[in-house]
């Protein structure tokens, strides 16, 4: 069972929402999850309707109660927005007691260099902090977090982001950075990690999902499941259009008219609705067909899939809990 | 509800895309926006339209979807603009397209600015190799560098740039500045200290503090990596001035009147929040904003029928059809068909097999079921319209000065020139046409 869940996907597919819902879903009774953000967007704070997250782990929610008989309360969700600069200073302090030197380095611009310009260091710090949280234990020797969920960079950058430690370990062949990078890589390539891909039932995100999974596999990083986000029910399909094409026009016009929408004769209010309504139906049916094709393509990848319905009013806190329950119902992720 | 409610508030200015593309003073169009809103497609569609209207245009894409790249014939990544075939050149324009190759662009800068021996030393440096292969940030620098090159080459009269899918979509604006502040910073002198100390004994005394710093760095990074970095920095030393100048020049180019920023967004809360942030940042940086492209907006040919009325009518029809079903329950086929439709009116699959099997014209009851489904679909569409309008209005209330154009949603993805042309047509609709 993985303990580090990395959530990626094409831009606009709802990575942050899915990561948050997953953190909630995994927070069953007595369990504690940590939701981390690495891109400095404060998306988690917006979703949970709290003020901006500091660089500090704090409890932000309680997982949804389990359903069925003897409802039991949910566990805890903690959150952390990882800041590369703070992570580096912490790291220097923790391992080298370099508090003062850290400040001097910052003044020099070295910290800025390390976190924004130096190849990969930023990503090493971000993944390193997440892996540290995965491995952290409390006094009794029990893992502090049962699961860590990362709202990760998009598909196009995810493999490089996770694999950066390999590259850095190759670049710094000895020394603490080398060891740190290797330690992080051991977690990321172990069964403790699972990268989940969020997608929509559209061509480009599905294509990126397939490409991204192939890249991750080639890099030896374990892939978890595919979350199909924002699915919509099919209200009608090509079958209905065939019925309409076989001369249901008059019938539809009459029906619309009987429902109080105006006259059914040519040029009547109800009759004039038919063309635009059928046009919408045609577009809808076309989309339904496309979605079926994309769905089949995702299934062919051969990974477990999870589906989350589109919440028409956008995702608020209540919606997030609904998505978390939906994820739970679909079995372990 | 009238058609007016579904189109833009008359107070928001309309973005005239053709006027922008046709104006010979427009030399650079930058498409920016958060991920997944259709930036690359918009950039490509603008390129096709500009070329077919007579401009000699080049589209610089950063990371296009494979099929979009194929549609423009740039599936190979060779860092050189290629002429796009199939574009109508009768108006005297042409379209070129290229995909950014970060490493190649970086290598070219090195080769162009250092003598052969020094260039080789840099290109072989392990630190450089990782840096140029595209770690965070490099893509932004190189996109801006390439834009500067294309503009300096002056072979095109319109350059359309798609921006990288960065962690913050405005990283490309910060990239030149960040590079500049790094190059001007003390840190770089610390890194170069040992290299210089060797040559100039007098510097040694002054650099005690700095040597301590490099000692710390060495402890952290490992001696070999620090040496790689130092060699790299020393080899790049002579080029830094050039870098700085170019970064500044590119930044000024972006502020120049010939540049037009288009913020691309989908009519969704998050995308428009990001768009508002963009608009504010561009203003703060004194970058010329041309307007907002609102992508994938839904419309309806029957906007006069509200969601509420459509739903009420659908309810009435379903009820009445159910009564008719009971009356007709002597016909077995009818029962199967209609009961399925009634029990689960939201599921299309349950009805279609029966419907396709039945070859006679639909009965009045099945026509009523069908009409009810059309109405429910319409109600859903009207709800989408209302939501999109609310999110858009929130944006225009915050930024009433920003011209907006809306692009109607297509049911599928675009992967050929015809599709790009269709997007271009939609982009360039006037307000009156869009209202219809």
UniProtKB/TrEMBL annotation, chain A:
Highest taxon of the lineage: Bacteria
All residue ranges annotated as the ArsA/GET3 Anion-transporting ATPase-like domain in the record: 5-187
GO MF, one example: ATP hydrolysis activity
Record InterPro entries: ArsA/GET3_ATPase-like, ATPase_ArsA/GET3, P-loop_NTPase
Name of the protein this chain belongs to: ATPase
Organism of derivation: Streptomyces natalensis ATCC 27448
Taxon lineage: Bacteria, Bacillati, Actinomycetota, Actinomycetes, Kitasatosporales
TrEMBL record, chain B:
Limits of the ArsA/GET3 Anion-transporting ATPase-like domain: 26-297
Renumbered residue ranges of the record's region Disordered: 335-366
SUPFAM superfamilies: P-loop containing nucleoside triphosphate hydrolases (SSF52540)
Superkingdom assignment: Bacteria
Gene Ontology molecular-function annotations: ATP binding; ATP hydrolysis activity
PANTHER family: ANION TRANSPORTER ATPASE-RELATED (PTHR10803:SF26), ARSENICAL PUMP-DRIVING ATPASE ARSENITE-TRANSLOCATING ATPASE (PTHR10803)
Protein name per UniProt: ABC transporter ATPase
Lineage, broadest ranks: Bacteria, Bacillati, Actinomycetota, Actinomycetes, Kitasatosporales
